Amino acid sequence: MAKYRCTVCNYIFDEEKEGYAFDELPDNWRCPVCNSPLNSFVLLSEGEVELEEGEATVSEILVAQMVEWGIKYVFGIPGTSSLGVVDAIRKSKDLKYIQVRHEQTAAFMASAYGKLTGHPAACLTVAGPGATNLATGLYDASLDHSPVLALTGMLKRQLIGPGSFQEIDQQSFFESITVYNKVLMSEEQTTTLITNAIKHAILDKGVAHIGIPKDVQEIPHTARTIPFEGSFPNEAITQPMFLILQAAQAINQSKRPVIVSGFGAITQGENILELAEKITAPIITTFRGKGVVDEDNEYYVGSHGDIGSTAATDLVLNSDLLIVIGSSFSDMTHLPEKRAIQIDIDPLMIGRQYPVEVGLYGNSAEILPQLMDLVQENRKDDYLGEIRELKMEWLDLLDEEADGGLTPIRPQYIIKVLNEKLDDDAVITLDTGENAWWFGRNFWMKKTQKMIMSGYLGTMGIGLPAALAAQLIYPERQVVCITGDGGFSMVMADFVTAVRNDLPIKLFLFNNHQLAMIMQEQMVEKFPNWETELYNPDFAAYARDCGGVGINVKDPQELPEAVDKALSIDKPIIVDIETDPRRFI
Length: 585
Ligand code: FE
Known about the structure:
The protein has 585 residues and is of the alpha/beta class. 36% of the residues lie in helices and 18% in strands.
C-alpha cells in the first residue's frame, strides 16, 4: 500500500486509509485540501519500510529512513570516505544509485529532480574534492529553492582536525549553500538528523547537508524509522478574508490589470486562466514560469524581461495593476514599479523590489480560488482586442525572424522547428546561454509540457544533467535538452551516463563555436571580441563513440528531418546543429 504526498500542501494520500489505489483515481481528481491536480503528487513510499530483525548499521538505518520519506535516487561517485553508505544503498531494493562521472553532475541532477517534482533526491560524495565538486549544482538548487539532500563522507572522527588526507573544513564549506548543515556524530542521532534534513529541504526549499564520518557509517545500531505523517504541517496557507477582499477591490477598480505568473505558480494554470477570463487580464510569465498555461491561449502574451515579448512589455507598461503570483521580482524580469497585488508562499518575497498595495502571504492554490469568488466578472472587449493585436504583432515578428533559408542555421529557425515537432507533454531542459535565450523568447509552450533551467544562478552545464534526472522521473515522456557547445562541453563526460542507464534523452546542441552570449555582450559594451570562440570536437561523433546516436546538421533544409529522426529514436542522441552565433542579422 503506497503513500503519496501533495507537493503543494503536504497532504498525504494513503491508499490503505483511502481504500483505493492512487493509479485508479480519475484524471480530474483533486487534492482534497488544496484542490491541486493529480500531477502535484509524488510517490512517497510503497508502505512501511521494514528493517531486518536485529542490529543494522547506521548507514542501513539512514537508507531505510530516506526510503520511508520518499527519497528514490542517490546520484554520486563512490569513494574512500563514503563506502559504508554506498554499501547500504547497494543492499536497498528501494533506493536507486546512479553513478556519474563528476560530482557536479550529481548535484545538478538532484537540483533538477527537486525542481521537477517538489521532492528531494540525494547526492552522495566523498570528503574533500568530492564534496567541493558539488558546490555549483547545490548553489543552483539553493537559489532556485529546489529541495535537495546532500550527503558527504568525512574522515574517521579521530582524524578530523589535524589536517589529514582529503580533510577540509566541510562544515564551513557547506554553510552558505544550505538551509540545514550538520555532522552525524553519534548513532543515536541517525533518524532524527536525516529526517530533520529532509524536512528542512522541503519546508525551507533548499539544500540540506549531512556529513557522515567514515567510522560512524559502520557503527552497529538498532532504531525504528520515523513516519512521514505527523512530521509535516499542511501548507494550504491563506490570509484573513478582509485582506483578500482588499485585493479583490483593487482588481475590481482596475481597468488594465495584468497577471504576472512565476515558477511558484506553475501548478496553478487552471486558476490563473479562470481569473484572467473573469476580469479580462493578459497573462505574462517570468522565464521560469513559462508553460503555466497553453501559450497559444489568447490571454497569454509572452514573458517579461530580457527574453520578453513586445506585447508583454507594452501591456505591463500601460497597466494600472499588476497581479503578481509566485514570482520573486527578479532583476531579469524587470517589472517596473506599479500598483501591485502579490501572492507568495515566501513572506520575504512580498514587496521585494518595491512596496505592493496588498501582499498576500500564502499558497496560491488556496488564495486564488478565494480571490476569484470576490472579484466581479468584468469583460473588457476593447482591452481584449488590444491584447490580441499586440500578441499577433509579436507572433508575426517571430515568424519573420525564423528564416529557414540561411546558413549557418538561424537559432530562431531551430526553435521554430522544435516548436512544431516536440511532443505536447515533452519535458524540456535548458542550458544557460544563447540556446536558452532563444527558447525563452521564441518557443511557445503547452501547459502539458514542462521546462526547467537554472533560474537565478544561471549556471552553464545544467542542461544534460537535468535531462538525465528528467528521464529517470518520466521514463515514458520525451525528454529534450536544449544546450550549447559551451554548456555541454562542461559536463559532456556524463553523456555516457545516459547510455549506461538507457535514458533516451534528445540533445539539440546549438553549435555556434562561440560563447555567443558573451560575444554579444562584448559587442554591446564596445569591447573587441576576444576569447569567446570555441574549438570543438565533432559532438555527433562523440555521441556515437559513447554508444549513443549522433547527427550533424549543417543545412537548414535538413533540420526538420533530423529532428524527426532524433525524436523517433529510442536512444540517447546528440543533434549537433551548426548554428549562427549572431542574435540578429
Ligand atoms: Fe494539496
